[in-house]
Design a protein that fits this description.
alpha+beta; 9 strands; two-stranded antiparallel sheet; globular; single chain; 1 helix
Length: about 100
């Protein structure tokens, strides 16, 4: 019983953070730098997620790409910056069917 209560408490404590991270939008007035070139080696059973520039404390920082395990029936779509009304908005990547 104690273990279940502790796990439920931990989940509820993290739930608002996860929801905020998922729906929080970032609008930036300056365009992101050009993506960096990354060397990609084909790895069977894995998909490469390309790196991107993330807006962090008033400037862009590079987030390196990485491999994720393949998900049969799903396709990985990289995140992208979109220009809209003179501002830039980042749309995170993710799996889609």
């Amino acid at each position: 019983m104690r273990k279940t209560t502790a796990l439920l408490g931990a989940f509820l404590a993290l739930a608002p953070t996860a929801a905020f991270a998922r729906w929080h939008r970032v609008w930036v007035s300056e365009p992101p730098p050009a993506p960096r070139e990354e060397r990609v080696v084909v790895r069977p059973g894995y998909v490469w997620t390309h790196g991107y520039h993330r807006w962090h404390h008033g400037h862009y920082v590079w987030v390196h790409g990485h491999y994720v395990r393949e998900r049969p029936g799903w396709v990985w779509h990289d995140g992208e910056w979109e220009s809209r009304d003179g501002r830039w908005e980042y749309h995170p990547g993710g799996w889609r069917r």
